[in-house]
Write a structure and sequence with these properties.
Strand content: 15-25%
Helix content: 25-40%
Oligomer: single chain
Number of helices: 6
Shape: globular
Radius of gyration: 15 Å
Strand order of the largest sheet: 5-4-3-6
Structural class: alpha/beta
Largest sheet: 4 strands, parallel
């Protein structure tokens, strides 16, 4: 995975969620920063939820971490294309504050907008989870370059093409 800045450098923050039950590292700027939307997404899973959850486009893992901290009978696969933020998720899993759920989290570097055969080759399989969560872009992607295009593609994949076809 791509190396990221040390949190002490000021480019990455170490943030608490759920009253300190979850800690994440996230870029200070330049990429999406997790907030209450991720907490609400995790809270939308019923308390009796069990099995494997896949968090598509997980970013630094906030929603998946919050779900795992809240629901002891689930395991979570974080799926993310951005290696830099996925490496921050990996770093957060090594935090002592996250030990109560870290062993139930797996990371998967994959592009959810790729054709089915490529997604499958990267480990993103149609029957890999009992439940899926995703915090897709809710506004029109802004800016330019690769991140804007990926956000637009992920939104289109979710709303019109689904995840299994292709």
């Amino acid at each position: 995975m791509t190396e990221v800045q040390d949190p002490a450098s000021g480019d990455v923050t170490h943030d608490a969620f759920l009253g300190g039950r979850v800690y994440v590292y996230q870029p200070k700027k330049g990429r999406h920063r997790a907030g209450l939307d991720a907490v609400f997404l995790a809270a939308a899973l019923p308390v009796e939820t069990t099995g494997r959850i896949v968090d598509l486009g997980s970013g630094v893992g906030t929603a998946g971490f919050c779900a795992a901290a809240r629901l002891p009978d689930i395991s979570v696969t974080l799926v993310e294309i951005d290696e830099a933020v996925l490496s921050l998720a990996q770093k957060a899993l090594q935090d002592p504050e996250n030990t109560h759920f870290a062993d139930r989290i797996d990371l998967l570097h994959a592009d959810i907008t790729a054709k089915g055969s490529l997604r499958h080759a990267n480990g993103l399989l149609p029957s890999m989870a009992d439940h899926a969560i995703m915090n897709p872009p809710i506004t029109k992607p802004t800016g330019s370059g690769r991140h804007r295009n990926r956000a637009a593609q992920a939104h289109t994949c979710w709303t019109s093409a689904g995840l299994s076809p292709g």
